From TrEMBL:
Primary site of residence: membrane
Keyword vocabulary terms for this entry: Cell membrane, Ion transport, Membrane, Sodium, Sodium transport, Symport, Transmembrane, Transmembrane helix, Transport
Segments traversing the membrane: 14-31, 37-57, 78-104, 110-131, 151-169, 189-206, 218-236, 372-394, 406-426, 491-520, 540-558, 564-589, 596-613, 633-653
Stored NCBIfam families: Na_symport_lg
Extent of Basic and acidic residues compositional bias: 352-363
Residues covered by region (Disordered): 338-363, 674-694
Family assignment from sequence similarity: Belongs to the sodium:solute symporter (SSF) (TC 2.A.21) family.
Organism: Aromatoleum bremense
Protein name: Cation acetate symporter
């Protein structure tokens, strides 16, 4: 304990100096901006300086020890594990996507705050201490030991890779978004620039390097998240405590919404979008003839422009329209349906920020309420089942420290989540008051800057030269990153926010990459294919798999499959359906056996994936095929209860697990000796544990 206490004191001293140095670094950049340092230089300095810090920690933490590589030597103090878990947890979705979702959805966006926070209560009560007492390295390790062998392990491995990969794609997408905006490179190039920062940490030192890097990343991301909203709170209200005062701004925002939604030009714009939606509906109904008619019309217009010696810009626009025209009726149907849905959405006023479960009819309100509850359920269960979060509790010195680190995780996450609603309200107040109603010729620079990366779009559909709300389209992921520019804050604050977003995306991406590569190298190669592999060979396999997965994830992210928050939500649904029933019943119900767990995990996973594919446009599905009008992000709401029911039913219809497995459940569940926090296990369990894991 003395050694552990000294280690903790040394860490506090190191990270205290690090925090002070980072704040001084930001202060120097702010002074530099006052003396004329350009925004481009500030963006480059923030990006490359922070990546250099993470790379330096990764190099210093490199290791070839298996325990250090997989679980950081099981010596991470609770406070620092809480910070690392918070950084691992607060991905690009929490940092970038949450404020944007609250901006657009208002009350409905609180489902994310409620679900994610509540999930850590389940982690503390149902999983973290028991998994830490079990020991080992990964979640499939537990499944393989508890459910007698490699079948359950492999199913768990597949689900681990799938959930973590979907989550990883969202993080790399966020990295590309940030680097492309603040370093002025193509989005695809930005992906691989950020990927280099991810790989340095996880490749060299595994969990040891990732842990100490994530602590450093948490410091940056929480400072970066709080600084602009505190400044904005002071600017709008005169009080720099956002959670305490944003309610008064929300009252003023509600009055502004009432005024804005009935403004005559706003109504005219929405009617025009409604007519556009009707036109697309008519064209879809008239396929395939309407496609040929559209092609003839575009060709005639292009020829007429050329004959009349029209401006080159008009001719180029007509050529692009002809080139982008769908080639087949099926492509036209999909493209026009997407455009119809967008136009129809812009023809309706957005939901009022403070309105719970908005809808024009009782049926629409019921659907909104059901989706809110389904999302809260999936996010809570998914939080408690995410492999890259649960494996963090293997890194603490013991069970007591695992419980404490859950508390610290909640505290450090709370600092961000309690502020996110204020972010959304202040950002919307600035947009509604200072941007809407402006002349299109006098728009601020941030509109054009973010427009270049496809995050902001403006269409003057009524041609009056004035920006109406319906004519402005903001991507969910741009709200937080652009808020400093929206509010007119110094550019150094924008650079700080970008550095925080990069820290959030990199920290989670590191943890996810490590989870996937460890699952492939440890749970598949070492436990299934070659149990006699040397330590060196295991680490080589882990690092090679890490590189392959990282490149594939970057390629998928370059396709921009959806916004960050949806991809993360789908990962939660997958993890919830595949893991939560098997983990909880494996800990609390001795009768759960291998056939039950395997069929339950497969049933939950298959139903969740089937529903997501059936209802999401990226996979060719539509909400017309939805069950009970539940959105695809909440697909796990069907998989979780099916998984529980299947495990219970199949386990009762088949033979119970052998006595040594039931003894393992007792060992994990109940205190035995003061040595509970050690890695020692009763001799009676050593043989069955070795047998079931081989």
């Amino acid at each position: 304990m003395t050694t552990q206490s000294a280690f903790g004191r040394r860490l506090r001293r190191y990270y205290g100096w690090y925090t002070g140095s980072f704040l001084a670094f930001v202060g120097l950049l702010a002074i530099g901006e006052q003396f004329g340092m350009s925004p481009g230089v500030i963006g480059h300095v923030f990006l490359f300086a922070t990546i250099a810090i993470y790379a330096g920690i990764g190099v210093m933490s490199r290791t070839s020890d298996v325990s250090e590589y997989y679980v950081a030597g099981r010596r991470v103090p609770a406070v620092f594990n809480g910070m690392a878990t918070a950084a691992d947890w607060m991905s690009a979705a929490s940092y970038i996507g949450l404020a944007g979702t609250l901006y657009f959805s208002g009350f409905e966006g609180l489902a994310f705050v409620t679900g994610w926070t509540g999930g850590f209560v389940l982690v503390a009560l149902l999983l973290a201490p028991y998994l830490r007492k079990f020991g080992q390295y990964t979640i499939p390790d537990f499944l393989g030991a508890r459910y007698e062998g490699n079948v359950a392990r492999i199913v768990g491995l597949v689900a681990t890779v799938l959930a973590s990969f979907v989550y990883l794609v969202a993080q790399i997408y966020g990295v590309g978004l940030i680097t492309s905006r603040f370093v002025s490179v193509e989005f695809e190039i930005g992906l691989f620039v950020g990927l280099a920062g991810i790989l340095v940490c996880s490749f060299l030192g595994g969990m040891r390097a990732v842990t100490w890097t994530q602590v450093a990343q948490y410091v940056i991301l929480i400072v970066a998240y709080l600084a602009p909203v505190v400044i904005l709170s002071y600017k709008v209200t005169g009080i720099p405590v956002p959670p305490a005062v944003y309610g008064s701004v929300l009252d003023r925002l509600s009055a502004k919404e009432t005024e804005l939604f009935v403004e005559p030009r706003e109504i005219e714009v929405r009617e025009r979008f409604g007519q556009r939606a009707a036109d697309y509906e008519a064209k879809i109904a008239a396929l395939p003839d309407s496609l040929e008619e559209e092609r003839r019309s575009l060709i005639e217009r292009l020829n007429r422009l050329r004959i009349d010696n029209a401006a080159a810009r008009e001719i180029a626009h007509a050529e692009r329209a002809l080139r982008d025209l769908p080639k087949t009726p099926d492509q036209a149907r999909a493209t026009w349906e997407q455009a119809r849905v967008e136009a129809a959405g812009r023809s309706r006023p957005p939901p009022r920020h403070a309105e719970a479960h908005p809808g024009d009819t009782p049926e629409q309100k019921r659907v909104a309420r059901n989706n809110f509850l389904a999302l809260v359920f999936v996010l809570m269960i998914g939080t408690a089942a995410l492999p890259h979060v649960l494996v963090r509790y293997y890194t603490t010195p013991g069970v007591v420290e695992a419980r404490r680190s859950v508390f610290w995780s909640l505290f450090f996450i709370f600092l961000l989540y309690v502020t996110a609603p204020a972010y959304a309200v202040f950002a919307k107040w600035e947009v509604y008051n200072n941007l809407i109603g402006s002349s299109l010729s006098l728009l601020p620079n941030w509109v054009a800057s973010w427009g270049k990366v496809g995050m902001v779009a403006i269409e003057d559909i009524n041609g009056d030269g004035i920006l109406q709300l319906a004519e402005l389209r903001l991507n969910t992921d741009v709200i937080l990153l652009a808020t400093p520019e929206i509010a007119g804050l110094p550019y150094v604050v924008s650079g700080l926010v970008a550095a925080g977003g990069l820290a959030a995306a990199l920290s989670t991406a590191d943890g996810l990459l490590l989870t996937i590569s460890n699952a492939l190298s440890h749970d598949f190669y070492y436990k299934v294919v070659n149990p006699h592999a040397s330590t060196q060979r295991r680490l080589v396999i882990a690092k090679s798999q890490l590189l392959v997965v990282a490149v594939i994830a970057a390629w998928v992210a370059s396709m921009r499959p959806d916004n960050i928050l949806f991809m993360v939500g789908l990962a939660f649904s997958i993890a919830a359906a595949a893991f939560f029933p098997a983990l909880v019943l494996g800990i609390f119900w001795k009768r759960a056996n291998r056939p039950g767990a395997v069929t339950g995990m497969l049933a939950g996973l298959v139903v969740t994936l089937y529903y997501a594919v059936r209802t999401h446009p990226f996979f060719g599905g539509s909400m017309a095929q939805a069950w009970f009008d539940i959105n695809p992000i909440s697909a796990g709401v069907f998989g979780v209860p099916l998984g529980f029911a299947t495990i219970v039913l199949v386990s009762l219809l088949t033979r119970p697990p052998p006595p040594e497995i039931q003894d393992l459940v007792d060992y994990v569940r109940y205190p035995r000796l003061p040595a509970d926090d050690s890695e020692a296990q009763p001799d009676s369990l050593a043989a069955p544990r070795r047998r079931t894991q081989s």
